[in-house]
From TrEMBL:
PANTHER family: CYSTEINE-RICH RECEPTOR-LIKE PROTEIN KINASE 3. Keywords: ATP-binding, Kinase, Nucleotide-binding, Transferase. InterPro entries: CR_Ser/Thr_kinase. The keyword Transferase applies. GO terms for molecular function: ATP binding; kinase activity. It comes from the Eukaryota. This is Uncharacterized protein. Gene3D superfamilies: Transferase(Phosphotransferase) domain 1. It comes from Hibiscus trionum.
């Protein structure tokens, strides 16, 4: 269930920062908390091996900005593309 940035956990790998099974979680708040605690890698799908962790973290941060509750705080698609291109090229956005 991903409606309104909520999801119900069921298949999470167990880590100290993972929600419990069947716990309803606000996805953006969960990811933001992991970023603040320096545990962002707990969000990464293990199939993303080969990607630089700092790039994945930057994309996660961009995703949080794009899901801001205040529409005027969300970047335009042009800005999103520019940030993604800068991440890909190794330039700090």
């Amino acid at each position: 269930m991903f409606r309104n940035n909520y999801f119900k956990t069921s298949n999470w790998e167990e880590t100290s920062t993972s929600p419990t099974v069947n716990e309803v979680v606000i996805l953006c708040e969960y990811v933001r908390g992991l970023l603040e605690r320096g545990s962002a890698s707990a969000c990464f799908d293990t199939r993303f091996c080969g990607f630089a962790e700092n790039e994945l973290i930057q994309v996660m941060k961009l995703g949080l900005i794009c899901t801001s509750e205040v529409p005027s705080r969300r970047p335009s698609m042009t800005e999103v593309v520019q940030v993604l291109e800068s991440i890909r090229s190794g330039i700090e956005p």
